[in-house]
Task: inverse folding
């Protein structure tokens, strides 16, 4: 649960631009709501009577919660219409330990790589020729970044990921022998991108594979050559995105989804768990199943 911190309920409320009701409790750690101890910072996503029973008598905790608890709890209360989001913001500000910004002595970095300020690179990570890493980025252990990859500012690349190796592209000669198509492009990551552990992101063939600002991928994701993913989109565990797929902004790709090559996924669309997308998806639609069909508008 991390080391104790020294912060007050009022400091948390002020950071979130919200109002503290009740006592200005000294807060030391975040806790689950059903396991709160003295000094706990907890959140409740929606009002339920059972939470009044569990938390109402506690004078030594700070509760961040949806409206409905006013006058029914004795501790510090911060009401929010987006309690989970505000809880995440408070955790990031007051409770998240800052990752040490050092370059491990076992990391191998090509002399031509351009590494920005305040970058962390973990043990046994390999950074290839011509790679650019923006300031404030964290690249963890056992990562391989192939030549000419561009990584933006404040990104996170988790352990054992491979970025920028050639993808799977072949053409067959008259004898049926598969002949590799050279991949000469790059991978380009925007700012504030997060890449999960054990991801593989292939470089483009002639153009680039692009993950725009604030894209997030979960662990065990594969992204093929020439894919474009728009801002704020998320790709979740085990998903496979085939070559030349175009994904819009604010798209949700659920676990184990498969997207066939060259289709487009419109802005704000959602691809359901295990869906197999064989044709393009219009903006704002939720698709599910194999083959994926429209369930409803998001």
Result:
């Amino acid at each position: 649960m991390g080391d104790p911190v020294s912060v007050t309920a009022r400091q948390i409320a002020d950071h979130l631009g919200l109002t503290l009701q009740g006592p200005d409790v000294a807060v030391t750690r975040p806790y689950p709501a059903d396991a709160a101890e003295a000094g706990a910072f907890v959140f409740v996503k929606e009002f339920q009577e059972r939470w009044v029973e569990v938390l109402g008598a506690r004078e030594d905790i700070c509760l961040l919660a949806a409206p409905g608890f006013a006058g029914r709890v004795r501790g510090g209360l911060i009401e929010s219409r987006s309690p989970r989001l505000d809880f995440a913001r408070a955790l990031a500000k007051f409770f998240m330990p800052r990752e040490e910004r050092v370059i491990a002595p076992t990391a191998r970095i090509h002399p031509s790589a351009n590494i920005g300020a305040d970058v962390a690179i973990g043990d046994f990570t390999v950074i290839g020729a011509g790679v650019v890493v923006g300031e404030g980025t964290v690249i963890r252990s056992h990562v391989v970044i192939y030549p000419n990859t561009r990584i933006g500012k404040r990104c996170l690349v988790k352990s054992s990921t491979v970025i920028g190796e050639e993808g799977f592209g072949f053409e067959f000669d008259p004898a049926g022998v598969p002949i590799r198509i050279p991949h000469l492009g790059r991978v380009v990551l925007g700012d504030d991108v997060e890449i999960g552990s054990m991801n593989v992101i292939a470089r483009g063939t002639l153009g680039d594979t692009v993950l725009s600002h604030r894209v997030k991928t979960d662990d065990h994701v594969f992204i093929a050559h020439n894919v474009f993913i728009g801002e704020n989109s998320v790709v979740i565990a085990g998903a496979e995105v085939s070559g030349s797929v175009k994904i819009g902004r604010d798209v949700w790709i659920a676990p184990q989804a498969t997207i066939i090559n060259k289709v487009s996924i419109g802005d704000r669309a959602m691809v359901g768990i295990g869906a197999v997308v064989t044709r393009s998806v219009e903006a704002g639609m939720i698709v599910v199943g194999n083959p994926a069909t429209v369930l409803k508008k998001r």
Remarks:
- Residues 83-95 form the longest helix (13 residues).
- The chain has two domains: 7-95, 108-297.
- The two ends are 36 Å apart (CA to CA).
- Helices lie at 9-16, 49-55, 83-95.
